[in-house]
Amino acid sequence: MLRLTCPYCGAAADETELTPGGEAHLTRHGPGSSDEAFEGYLFLRKNPYGVHFERWRHAHGCGKWFHAARDTRSLQVFGTYSAQVTRPPQDIIDRIAATHPGFDWEAGQ
Amino acid sequence: MATRRYSAFAVAREATRYHSGWERAWASPAPKAKYDVIVVGAGGHGLATAYYLGRNHGIRNVAVVEKGWLGGGNTGRNTTIIRSNYLQDASAAIYEKARSLYENLSQDLNMNVMFSPRGVLMLAQTEHEVRGWKRTAHANVLQGIPTEFIGPKRVKEIVPIMNIDGPRYPVLGALWQARGGTARHDAVAWGYARACSAMGMDIIQNCEVTGVRQSGGQVTGIETTKGAIGCGKLAIVVAGHSGRLADMAGFRLPVESVALQALVSEPIKPCMDVVVMANTVHGYMSQSDKGEMVIGGGADSFNNFTQRGSFHHVEETVRALCETFPIITRLKMLRQWGGIVDMTGDRSPILSKTPLGNCFINCGWGTGGFKAIPGSGWAMAELVAKGEPGPLSAEFGLDRFREGRFIDESVAAGVAH
Ligand SMILES: Cc1cc2nc3c(=O)[nH]c(=O)nc-3n(C[C@H](O)[C@H](O)[C@H](O)COP(=O)(O)OP(=O)(O)OC[C@H]3O[C@@H](n4cnc5c(N)ncnc54)[C@H](O)[C@@H]3O)c2cc1C
Ligand SMILES: [Zn+2]
Questions:
Q1: Where does the record place the Rhodanese domain (chain B) (predicted)?
Q2: Residue B298: nearest ligand to its CA?
Q3: In this predicted model, what pLDDT tens digit does every residue of B144-154 receive, in sequence order?
Q4: Same domain as B265, residue B204
Q5: Is residue B5 part of a domain?
Q6: Is B310–A15 a contact, with Cβ atoms under 8 angstroms apart?
Q7: pLDDT score of B282
Q8: SS3 of residue A52 by DSSP
Q9: What is the value of ipTM here, to two decimals?
């Protein structure tokens, strides 16, 4: 069972307490965007084999949305962080780089 | 390699000489420098693609490249339900093509795939489901696919071990496809592999594709753990790993990979001779020839490449099935496993050209592609051979997401199947 610590209320929440919200840090596109950009925003996903950044909601707890960094191959969790940011905090990036040499967040964007 | 036919005579002949004459079912060649077509992924869909390329289109200079062992992906991990009672016309066409090919597949491949058209019951346990299945039954009439909506009494006759009274999950009726059923998953992969090998195709196992070579917007070959191999055309058929291959080829997909699990009980005497699916409670069950109750349930809802799955799904599935099948409450679970399934937004597959020239992709079968293997291979072979989709695959292109032409099967396929 996956466990994530909610960065808002601090609870170590089991997966059954949480609702997954899919890939994080997407750029929102709407009216006025090109078809390509809109398709990318709505449907195309990184679906990475390895490090992944995603949105979760502490649905059966404080109810807040937050971000998590996780490895989809090992289920290793690198940390959770605020939903209010567009880039993961440096300490999480450092923790990922420690086990994934050469990890570059910017290059993956 | 000349392939000897399997037959009753062959069994009798071998019985008289200590079974010393059986040959390897397929060859294990080293890769050649170049092929007309390379298929990545020796699951059912990849192998069937290669088979119909040879059989229907005369293209036999083909390699199927597999990172592990053939049939070791979802093809060897699924619960083998075969049905074609889908809602949308495009889906009904390709799934029914597949189901009808399954009927003669053992003869076609000279391998007993144990196709068992025992019937598939999809339970209606809410008023919404009653309406949904009636709608599907009407759609199936128009598509020429024999299905019917039956009442609870008939359900009880077909499956006497079922508790139809509820109270939590009363059975209000069911969509019944008498010609649906199951087949032996390994034998499907093995049968196609053997037939491909007999046509002179190379099945290269333990060979992971690590890169896609291109020049001037056209694919020219692949890089693998056994070196570079050139190709005229490339077919990517790797289910949960489609995103990785697409990344190598330089495009993105509307696909997410998640774990889907199944489990089997200890073997018991025959008690249920049809397949039962219960979408409201996210569970389904059939009985294998060995007597095990084969049970499947919901998929994990987050991206995942560990072929395990979260345990609470097993608990939820079994808890709900116990209400409908009280006799299973005291059975022990024998084993549990997971596979990585490739989910699209409309729960329909992708058979498509890609932004890279001469590179084609077949993916997105998600939780329900075993039933589709022969039809998918048939349609994919046509797409690869002609470079343009034929009638079976035309609707399943990648562009449908940009254009909003979804083939919405989230009703027919609300649960893993
Ligand atoms: C638990 C479970 C239950 C299911 N139940 C049903 C059911 O009852 N009915 C039904 O119709 N469907 C069911 N399915 C779905 C079905 O199993 C799949 O849709 C189908 O098997 C997909 O076949 P495939 O050939 O596309 O993929 P796979 O069989 O997964 O084959 C893909 C192959 O590609 C290989 N590969 C991946 N990456 C690389 C690489 N880089 N280089 C080389 N090779 C690579 C893999 O090793 C694998 O062998 C179920 C799935 C699961 C997991
Ligand atoms: Zn919280």
A1: 37-81
A2: 1
A3: 999 999 999 99
A4: no
A5: no
A6: yes
A7: 84
A8: strand
A9: 0.95
